Amino acid sequence: MIETPYLLFLGDAPDALAAKVAQGIKDWRPGNCVGQFRMEGCKADMKLTDMTLAEAKAAGAKTLVIGVANRGGVISPAWKKVLIAALEEGFDIASGLHNLLRNEEDLVAVAKACGRTLHDVRIPSVQYPIATGVKRKGKRCLAVGTDCSVGKMYTALCMDKEMKERGLKSSFRATGQTGILITGDGVPLDAVIADFMAGSIEYLTPDNDDDHWDMIEGQGSLFHASYSGVTMALIHGGQPDALVLCHEPTREHMRGLPDYKLPSLQQVRDMAMGLASWVNPDVKVVGISVNTQHMSEEDARAYLAKVEEEMGLPATDPYRYGAGPLVDALAALG
Amino acid sequence: MIETPYLLFLGDAPDALAAKVAQGIKDWRPGNCVGQFRMEGCKADMKLTDMTLAEAKAAGAKTLVIGVANRGGVISPAWKKVLIAALEEGFDIASGLHNLLRNEEDLVAVAKACGRTLHDVRIPSVQYPIATGVKRKGKRCLAVGTDCSVGKMYTALCMDKEMKERGLKSSFRATGQTGILITGDGVPLDAVIADFMAGSIEYLTPDNDDDHWDMIEGQGSLFHASYSGVTMALIHGGQPDALVLCHEPTREHMRGLPDYKLPSLQQVRDMAMGLASWVNPDVKVVGISVNTQHMSEEDARAYLAKVEEEMGLPATDPYRYGAGPLVDALAALG
């Protein structure tokens, strides 16, 4: 568990895209952000107050979150200087970078001397159990995709937000690095040891109130040859009551696999239902989430109407048009 | 790669079952075994020549393989004495124990001083790639089960043996600890990091001759809530041309999951075919392997006849009655 609130470290981000982790935190948990820390030459801006470490500390920030990708897989000397100063100032540091904070000897030494914690969210910090398959209390909704990176995290976050705005009980359950930094907690599923994948999802989504929904961030796709095992573990470990199918219609082949076309929504529905109903016979597909970011308003509206017609289910782009229809469908499950 | 031939270490095995790893090596790769090393009180016997370390060394043994489970998860002082002497004598040591050789400081120090290697086959020794999903040359057969521990390893080993006896090209591809110790190589799939599972199977089963078959050891089950993700990675990473369904008819619930009945052979066939055909449209289910060890001769024969009738496919217990029908079916694929 990462202590909040955060100071978002944007470093020397060469453009806005390099700071997309910070953007995600700012968009979804603005209340967790007291300000931003930018270095000379930083081209990203979260429209948060620029603060020194001391100012952020005084404003209550507990953790410096690295919200920017590093260049060339190296933590530069310029960054290092800020990170060490932050530890000395009393901040923990959280990072989703591939090169781990814990492998930087100077950071480890200073963190130890100052009694601070280095959070590498890319790798698990917990010894997860083996899954038991036992039914848990409360309800769970899982986003499953036709492909990787089609908007499963955004779908779960949008639905969680809509649920909370309606006064309904909901928790976003992060299964990837960005999601973990957004919420401060979660399972970095792609880095979990094979035998413990489903168990890590049971751990992430424990017993809860009967009317509480876990909105589980999906990963991979049942049809993605590289990562399908991860998706399978989410379905069996999550025991979802509801599935939302996620799709990006303009993609020409599966991400990273030029020889593979995307499966149809029908194929994903049938495969996911076949697998999920084994662990939860009451599971239902409640709707379709379409990522229309590369489509015009007219094309997006037409595509959503076509999908609704073909699938007989509500379809929306929850980020563009709101998650209302998906949350309505969840509520209708009772 | 573990150097052969082996001296099988049976330690102070309290009974034959405790030495089942040694038994597997002796049964399947007798040519790899120069002898056995037994301590005071050992109740297991592989019917190999009892040898001292020096005698085994003189007979050409390269690696001492721990073929026995240790009690209480501790490598006892009595074992330790033999293991250290083996390193000093010039043996490598290979182990599938949960507690790793590499965590024993004295073994590590002596191995280093003697220039010997400690093989912990329970954890990967390779940084596996991400799967590409690209079609490889050669053919692959995967054993998929209704449950864990129904005989998938024995099925693949029996088929590999039958193939070789017929002069056909075949390699047994191990995906578990016992299989790795039997062949000296393989992927400990249950210990691989999630993102690399399918890639590890592509790595294990690379391009080969057009008429060569990899007999891939299966793991878990698509219907086992704890381990289904591992099975999924085998199907997508293995891109099998042929599937053999494996079943144990007397089991009352899935292994470790008292709330779950076993799926039917039809359910496993349909689910496995749906997933496998995505990466290899030509995949076929070629036969059924039934583990009849808990059935009388009469019951076993009757059950096999019933399954053949119901499934329209050859069915055998390859360990009890030979793998002939399964290999015939592979050969018929051309």
Automatic annotation (TrEMBL), chains A, B:
Span of domain D-glutamate N-acetyltransferase-like C-terminal: 130-327
One of the Pfam families matching this protein, by short name: DUF1611_N
InterPro entries found in the cross-reference section: DgcN-like (IPR011669), DgcN-like_C (IPR035086), DgcN-like_N (IPR035402), P-loop_NTPase (IPR027417)
Origin: domain of life: Bacteria
Domain D-glutamate N-acetyltransferase-like N-terminal: 39-124
PANTHER family from the UniProt entry: DUF1611 DOMAIN-CONTAINING PROTEIN, GLL3100 PROTEIN
NCBIfam families associated with the record: DgcN
Protein name as it appears in the record: DUF1611 domain-containing protein
Natural source organism: Pseudooceanicola antarcticus
